[in-house]
Amino acid sequence: MSQARPMRNPNMADVAAAAGVSAQTVSRVFRDSPNVSPETRRRVLAAVEKTGYRFNSAARMLSSGRSHTIGLVLLQSGGYYSRAAVTAGVEHAAGEAGYAVSIATIAALDTGLMERSLTKLADQGVDGIVIAVPLLHATQKMADITRDIPTVTLDGSRTSDARVLGIDQQEAGRVATQHLLDLGHRQVWHVSGPDEWIEARQRRQGWEECLRAAGIEPPPPLEGDWSPESGYRQGQIIAMIPDVTAVFAASDEMAFGVIRAMRERGRAVPDDVSIVGVDDIALAAYCSPPLTTVRQDFYRFGAAAVALLLDDAGAGDSVVPATLSVRESTAPPH
Amino acid sequence: MSQARPMRNPNMADVAAAAGVSAQTVSRVFRDSPNVSPETRRRVLAAVEKTGYRFNSAARMLSSGRSHTIGLVLLQSGGYYSRAAVTAGVEHAAGEAGYAVSIATIAALDTGLMERSLTKLADQGVDGIVIAVPLLHATQKMADITRDIPTVTLDGSRTSDARVLGIDQQEAGRVATQHLLDLGHRQVWHVSGPDEWIEARQRRQGWEECLRAAGIEPPPPLEGDWSPESGYRQGQIIAMIPDVTAVFAASDEMAFGVIRAMRERGRAVPDDVSIVGVDDIALAAYCSPPLTTVRQDFYRFGAAAVALLLDDAGAGDSVVPATLSVRESTAPPH
DNA sequence: AGAGCATATGTTATCGATGCCATCTCTAAC
DNA sequence: GTTAGAGATGGCATCGATAACATATGCTCT
C-alpha cells in the first residue's frame, strides 16, 4: 500500500501498468479511438481513477503538435458588454470542444501591440486565434506570425489573410434609423463609434443608407469612442443645433451620454429629442429614461467564431439578427 | 541558401548550429542565465533572428515542469465592471512577468462547476490559479485538485487551503453609509448582493457597523443579485415604506434599479430619497441622476493577486482604499 | 480451408527544451 | 608556482504522450 515512488505524478505508463495494458492503449482511450474494446476501456478508466492520473497536456502538445488551446485577443479597456458576451461565447464553445482559451489583451488599437499579442499566443502554440478586436491594417508581420495558425477576425478588415466573421452591423444601423423615421422624424443625427472599428463604420453606413432610401441627406456624423464621456461631448454639440429631434448613437453607453447632454441643455428625452442606442446592456431598461436600443446576440457570435475555427465545414453564414427593443427614449416628434 | 529541411520549424539545435554554440547555451540565453558572455548572447540572438526560431512552450513545460501559465476562474455572467477590471489587472501583471493567462468560466456559483473548471486548468498544467469568483464551500475535491498548484482566491472563503486576497469591503460599506449619515439621514436601508458573495457580506457588515456606531439599529437588508432588475424589485418594496430617505445599494447597477423603482412610485432622487452605489462604472456619472458611488481599484487588485502568486515574498497587505465619488444622487433629507 | 480484412493491442522512435554534471579557461591569492 | 574558485560552455539523459509501424486475433467470403 505504501508508495514506492517519491512525489512523481502518475503517468500513462503507471496507468497502463495498473490496467494491465500498454501505454498506447491508454492513450487511445483518452482520444476516443474507435478501436478499443469496451472491456479494456473500462479497465483503463478504473486504473485512471485508482492511480489518480492527471493528464499532461504539455507532453501531448509536444508529441502531437497540437495544444488544444485557442487564443483570444481582447481589447483591455473593458466595459463593452458586447465584447464580454463574445468572450463568454468563445470560452463556452471552446470548452465544449475540449479546447482551452488563452487570452491576450491589448491596451489600444495599435498594430505594434497587436503583433506582440499575436506573438505571445503563437509562442504558446495555440491551435487557432480569435481576434475580437477590429483590425484595420493587417501588417506583413502579423501575417507571418499567423501563417500556420488558423485565425478568425471578428468584424475585422478583409485585408488580412484571416477568415472574417461578421455580424451584419449595417442592419443594426438600418433598424435603429428606420424606427425613428417610422415615428415621424424627418432627420436623424448620428454619434458613431471610432472610425477604426468596422462595427462603427457599418452601423454608420446602415444609418446613411436608410436615410438616403427615404430621400433624406444624412447630416455629418459625430465620432465618439464608445464611452459615455464621448457621447456626452458630442451630445453637447448636437444640443446646440436647433432642429434636431432624433439621434442614433452607436452604443448604449454613448446614448446615455447624449441624453445627459440634451437634458443639461433643456432638451427633454423623448419629448424634444428621441435617442436610440445599440447593445441592450443590462442597464438600458433601468436608467432614465429606459433606452430604446438594438440588441444583437454577441454570445452566439463568439461561439460561431470557434465553430468556424475548429471545423472548417459550414458555419459560413452567421447572420445574427438585430432586434429592436423599443422603450421610452423614443417618441414621435411634436 | 535553399532550405534542406522540409517544413519543420527551427528548434534550439538549429539556432545553436547557426550560432556555433551548443543548444544548452541557447537555452541559457533565453532564461537570462547570468553565466553567458555578452558576445555569445549576441551571436545567439542573431542566429535566432536569422533562423526565424519560435519558442516551443510545450517542450519547455515538459522538461521544466512549469508552464508559465496562470489560470483564471471567472464567472460567465459578465457585466460586472469590477470583474472585468480584475481580469485586465491579472492579464497585465501576468504578461509583464512572462506568464500567459488561461481562462475558465463558470456559469453559476456551483461547486460542481467550480471543480470542473479547476480540473480543466489543472490539466492544462497551469502554474497558479486565481479564483476571481467568491467561493464559499471549498470541497475536498477542490483541495485535491489544487494541492500542487498555488492558488489565490479573491474575496473567497477562508475555509479553502488557498491563499486569500481581499479588499476591505467593509470599508466600502462604511464610507457609503457614513456619507449618508453625514448628510443628516437618520436611517439607511441596504440592498445587498447575494449572500454567497463575500463582497456582499462584507459591505453589509460595514453598513451595519456604521449604523450601530451611530446608535442606529439597522433595518433588515434586502438581497439582490447585482443585476439592475434585482435592484428594481427590491426598490419597489422599499418604495412602499413611508419614511425611507436613504438607500445604500451594493452595486451601481442595483442602485439604478432602485432609482427607477423610487421614481415610478413618485419618490424623487435625491430630493425624497438619496442613493449610493458601489463600483463607479463608466455610466455612473452620465445616467440620471449622476450616481454617488464608492470606487475601488479592482485593476490593481487583480495585479496584486498575480504578484502574490508569483513571488511569495511581500505583497501581503493589499488594502486598496475606497474612494467616494459624490455626485447628484445624494442630498440632505428635508 | 485459406485468403483477405477489420479490430484490438504492443513496440519503438520521436517531439524540443532543460537539469545535472563534466569540462575548460581564466584570475586571484597564498 | 600552485591551488582554489568563479565564469563560460558542452554532453547526455529525461520529461510524458503520440505517430508510425508491427503484430495478433477473430471473422467473413469464396
In round numbers, the mean pLDDT of chain A is 88
The most extensive interface between chains reads:
A-B, 51 and 51 residues
- Spans of chain A of at least 5 consecutive residues whose pLDDT stays below 50 are 1-6
Strand order of the largest sheet of chain A: 7-6-8-9-10-11
Q: What is the count of β-strands of chain A? A: 11
How do the strands and helices of this protein lay out in sequence?
The structure is a homodimer.
Chain A: H1 12-19, H2 23-30, H3 38-51, H4 57-64, E1 69-75, H5 81-96, E2 100-106, H6 111-123, E3 128-131, H7 140-145, E4 151-154, E5 163-165, H8 169-182, E6 189-192, H9 198-213, E7 222-223, H10 228-239, E8 246-249, H11 252-264, E9 274-278, E10 292-295, H12 298-310, E11 323-325
Parallel strand pairs in A: 1-2, 1-3, 3-4, 4-5, 6-7, 6-8, 8-9, 9-10
Antiparallel strand pairs in A: 10-11
The structure holds a DNA duplex (30 and 30 nucleotides).
In short:
The first copy, chain A, has 334 residues and is α/β, with parallel strands linked by helices. Chain A is 42% helix and 14% strand.
How would you characterize the overall build of this protein?
- Two copies of one chain form a homodimer.
- Chain A has 334 residues and is α/β, with parallel strands linked by helices.
- Chain A has twelve helices and eleven strands.
- In chain A, the strands form two sheets. In chain A, strands 7-6-8-9-10-11 form a six-stranded mixed beta sheet, sandwiched between helices. Chain A has a five-stranded parallel beta sheet with strand order 2-1-3-4-5, sandwiched between helices.
- In chain A, α7 links the parallel β3 and β4.
- In chain A, α1 crosses α2, α1 crosses α3 and α5 packs parallel to α12.
- The radius of gyration of chain A is 26 Å and the shape is elongated.
- The N terminus of chain A is likely disordered.
- β2 of chain A pairs antiparallel with β2 of chain B, so a sheet runs across the interface.
- Chain A binds a DNA duplex (30 and 30 nucleotides) through α2 and α4.
